[in-house]
Structure formats: structure tokens, C-alpha cells
Specification:
Radius of gyration: 15 Å
Number of strands: 4
Largest sheet: 4 strands, mixed
Helix content: 25-40%
Strand content: 15-25%
Distance between the termini: 45 Å
Number of helices: 4
Structural class: alpha+beta
Length: 126
Amino acid sequence: MVSKESRQNVRVKKHDRMRNRFKGGISGTAERPRLAVFRSNNHMYAQIIDDTVGKTLISASTLEKSVSGELEKTNNVDAAAYLGKVIAERALEKDIKTVVFDRGGFLYAGKIAALAEAAREAGLEF
């Protein structure tokens, strides 16, 4: 019988490879923190992380009432784009202008791409 590895395990391995591929890995610093994105079947989550101290500086998700109140559904491309706009606005309020984008092992398409493009349009650079 052929055993197949779960999709989550494949994504986690892909994420680890991606973070270790570049010199020193993809990690956030105080000058250029990491924008980490995670999506589940029902919601999306984005955080801006300073990896040198291991602290989340800013976070946003479609679970928040202020975000989900503006959305019809929390698991589509429109929700991802709105979340990208929200996280960028919160980052700019704290004077964070440039970040390292960490797509979390997900393909850069659909919801992940929509979030990234909306964050760029709102003023974040990566």
C-alpha cells in the first residue's frame, strides 16, 4: 500500500526549506520584520514578527470583529485583500515600512497573492 504524507506535513517541510534557502534564512529583524501569513479553510491570519527577540509586533486576522464585520465571508480572496490592507495600515501606524514576506509554505496564488498585493498597495514594501 502506498502511504501518502499529509498536506500539512508537506506544507511545513516546504516552509522550512524556504526559510533556510536564503543566507541566514528568512527571518525578521528590528529594521525589517517578517510578515508571516497563515490560512486555514475558514480564516486567514497575518502577523509581523521580529525574530531577533521572538516577538509579534502586529497581528490581524479574519477572526477579529473589526475585520469580520466588514466582510461577507472570511475565507475568500476579498477577505484576504482586506486583511492585507488592515495589516499594512497597522504596520504603518507603528512606523514599519519594509518587511520580509513569508508565505508560510503556501503557493503564491489566490488568497496569499491577494493579501500581498493589497499590503503593497496600502504602503508596505517587500
